[in-house]
Every structure is written in C-alpha cells, then in structure tokens.
Amino acid sequence: MKLPDFLEHVGLNRLRANMGAPLRSWTPDMDWRKLDMSALKALLDESFVELPWEDIQQSESGPLSVNGVTLLAYMKKQKLGMTYKFHVAGCHVYNQYHEKYVGTRQRSGEFEVDIVDPWGGNAIEKGVKKRLRVCKLCLLKLRYKGYKDHRYNSKIYNDFSLDEFFSLYPYTPITRPPLYTSDDFPENEYPADWQAISREVRERNRWFCQECGNDCSNFKKYLHVHHIDSRKDRNNRENLKSLCIYCHSLYHERLKNSPDYKGYINERNLQHSLRDRGFSD
After folding, report:
1. pLDDT tens digits for 106-121?
2. Is the pTM of this model over 0.70?
3. CA distance 265 to 223
4. Which region holds residue 104: left if phi is over 0, alpha if psi is between -120 and 50, else beta?
5. How far apart are CA 192 and CA 87, in angstroms?
6. Same domain flag for 164 and 60
7. How many domains does the chain have?
C-alpha cells in the first residue's frame, strides 16, 4: 500500500490535533498494519488509497475489511467493453478472482482503472475514471437491508449508497484471510463430461427452474445448470441446481446479452399470455 506523507497530510493532522496527539515522524520502513483502527480508518477515509488483495480480509457474514476497518474491492485491470462491479463482501465471484482486486474506502462510486486488451491483456489506457455499481451477490451475502432476491429487492440495489454502507458497517471485528493465494489458487474448468452432468441435473429436476419454478420442458435449451459456489470443478449434487436463463442471469449478468435470454423472455411472455387467456394445458 502506498502511504501519503503523514507530516503533510491535512486530514490526519486535523485528526491528530483533535485528539491532542503529538506530531511524530514516519519513515517508509514503518508498518502501516500497526496503526490502530481509528488511525487506519482516518487514513483510508481521507486518502484515495488502494490496498493489494493480500491485505483484504473477509468475515463469515460481514463485509470486506483490513485490520477490522470496512472497505470495498474492485478490479483494477478491466477488459475493454466489459462491465464490472465492486465488491463489499466475500461473495463467490470475489473469491473466484480475488487476486485481481484492490481495496479502498473511496465513496464517489468512480474508480481509477486500467483498460486492457480483452485478448492479449495489454494496457490500452491507464488511470481511467469509471463508475461501477455494487455486486448483487455481495448484497445477498450480507442480507444488506433485507436484500434476498433482486426480483423483489431491486430498489435496495438501485438506491445503494457507499456513504450509507460505510455508516452501517464502520468496522468488521472478526475477519479471516482469503481462501487462496496466487500460488495455490485452483483451476476452475468444466470437466470433460460436463454436458452429461448438466443433462442429468436437469432431468432429475424434471426440467423445472429451481428458483422461479417455471417449466422449461418445452424449451430445454433455456434451462441451465448453475454452480452454487461458482466452482466449475465441483460437481457434487449439492453444488448444482437447474435455473432458467432468467434466474441464472441474476448471478451472471452477462447472460442478459445472450440471444437465448431474449428468446426465453419472449417464450415465457407468450406462455403466460396463453395461460391468462385459458389456453394452457
């Protein structure tokens, strides 16, 4: 983490004066981790500081933090044309890619990112200000303000405010380190027999979506199989559930750009229209 000049930092000196603390020198070999919660929180609040992912901690049911001070994480390098979210909790997506994130407490909703080529990963433009939105899975993990299902709690998502979030979660006293390091992070690939596994799951659930209950037996290609923990290599029965493409898109928003998504919405609307008019089986 790159620290500001503590002797010249206006915010920290104001805090020091309010506390009646003496001015002390700071040298680069001092460890910022030895700061107490109040000093660290003041540092993160007053400065646009980015922490490497190794310093970001998680709690079982609370937000991301560093040394007990709540923060958020976002992906610093972003592929051209892709839409990203910032994370406030250790959701499945964050844990899947956590080594690519940096942590901060800045509250504007605009983040400094580096745009890279989606194929080669080469830098296209650095230091671009980009507005990001909060991750829905993080809200679900926190049960933020009662958030349980985006179909019914979209207002909570749309009205999300970082100022309000940090006021609700100023500290996170119980933390744990990330699940993996960059050296031991496992591969995350579909097995060779994934197509057979996927069909077995959907057949077992009689081609019904396990979230909305919609019958997809007449348009089977719109019924997907979702990994609950986002690990494609964990295909035990408890980790797999069948979801229509609409419900699946609540976990993977990119699916909304798929032609199948639009096709399913049209089919579902037609099905509901026929049912309402008394033409259902």
Report:
1. 888 998 889 998 887 7
2. no
3. 12
4. beta
5. 32
6. yes
7. 2
